[in-house]
Write a structure and sequence with these properties.
four-stranded antiparallel sheet, alpha+beta, 4 helices, single chain
Length: about 100
């Protein structure tokens, strides 16, 4: 069993192990995300699990899809579905990869 160290000894040890700012690894530059599109999610009237997705495209075109709320939650996370239940609509920025998963 060892004797407890004094507070001054412990603080000296922790500060001596700290790496200098120049020795820290530099963060990598963030990769550029794919082109983002806005998607508005609303419930299909008269249903309890079908969601209508309006996806804005370039040049003012709009694309409409309908998916289940379960499928939407698997791709975009529970936050989107949570907002949909609470507010009746949700707005999300989607990448081309996420859009491909929807279709």
């Amino acid at each position: 069993m060892t004797a407890p160290q004094s507070l001054s000894t412990r603080t000296q040890k922790t500060t001596s192990n700290a790496a200098s700012p120049s020795a820290r690894p530099q963060p990598r530059p963030a990769q550029m995300p794919a082109a983002l599109q806005d998607m508005l999610c609303t419930w299909v009237p008269g249903t309890t699990s079908i969601v209508r997705l309006r996806i804005s495209a370039e040049q003012g075109h709009e694309r409409t899809l309908e998916v289940t709320s379960t499928h939407l939650g698997r791709i975009f996370g529970k936050e989107v579905v949570h907002d949909l239940y609470l507010k009746g609509r949700s707005k999300v920025s989607v990448t081309a990869q996420q859009l491909a998963l929807l279709t």
